[in-house]
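User: I'll paste a sequence; please echo it back and then give the predicted structure.

Assistant: Echoing your sequence first, then the prediction.
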Amino acid sequence: MSFRQHVPNLLTFSRIIVIPLMVAAFYVPAPLSSALATGFFLYASITDFFDGYLARKWKVESALGRFLDPIADKLLVVAALVYLVADHRAPELPATLILLREILVAGLREHLMEKNIPLPVSRLAKYKTAVQMIAITFLLAAPMLPLFLIPGTYALWIAAILTVVTGWGYVTSGLTYLKG
């Protein structure tokens, strides 16, 4: 096996390893905490793009990657949103909608996977993820750059709306298989 075959999964593993570092950064005195948390989150967001991109480009997609990538994404988003809500930088409703959708879609995917039925990621869901990552980055950076708080909050609401729309799409698509 070549090193190239392992790069996407190594990026995914590194994203998982960065999550506890991001959480630990929340407990470092300000303003360093914000800089570290934002940096770790940005690193994880960038690797989220590149692990899938490289796996497809190099044709080294793997079952392990398909399994770990969405888990890494959910862990990252959950950790960041829980902190941001607790720190009063993110409103509870959009954060809750995002978290509930993530759990619902993960459960649906797992159930359908047992029946060998794929539930591919939609293009709109990819846009939702991008908006969500931008929103969280802005909210994490807001203590250093206060002007980021308002656009970060609006972006989180937009991500929540996209979350509901894409979640509904996944549920209706999944229900088709569950009825049969």
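The radius of gyration is 17 Å. The chain has one domain: 3-179.
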